[in-house]
Amino acid sequence: xxxxxxxxxxxxxxxxxxxxxxxxxxxxxxxxxxxxxxxxxxxxxxxxxxxxxxxxxxxxxxxxxxxxxxxxxxxxxxxxxxxxxxxxxxxxxxxxxxxxxxxxxxxxxxxxxxxxxxxxxxxxxxxxxxxxxxxxxxxxxx
Length: 142
What we know:
Its cofactor is heme. Heme binds at residue 88. There is one protein chain. The chain is built from 3 helices and 8 strands; from the N terminus they run αββββαββαββ. The protein is an alpha+beta fold. The longest helix has 18 residues, at 91-108. The chain is elongated, with a radius of gyration of 18 Å.
């Protein structure tokens, strides 16, 4: 099921929160700049997710970018839930639930795009309306 996991990661790459605020907990040096304790820092997650320097064809939905020789590979710059000790504690739960729900749906149904529909994710669309996309869904035969 590596392709399912890669698909979830690719979806997260496209919808991750565009800007993530943090506060420096100590005086630091980053890239030659001094960052004083209690400074508000914004991580531009949109640039990390959509940079052509980091991703080949970043506007395209391509789960294959997370697969190498049939295994899931997560680049260091893919951090939709942050990184380190301060990363989102819901990341693992989101990963497991997403995988379980999607894998079970695909086991029972064939889900396909409808010709002529636009499936691009608008920039900054962390929360989408309930009726965002329509798909063709048909039960799989056993």
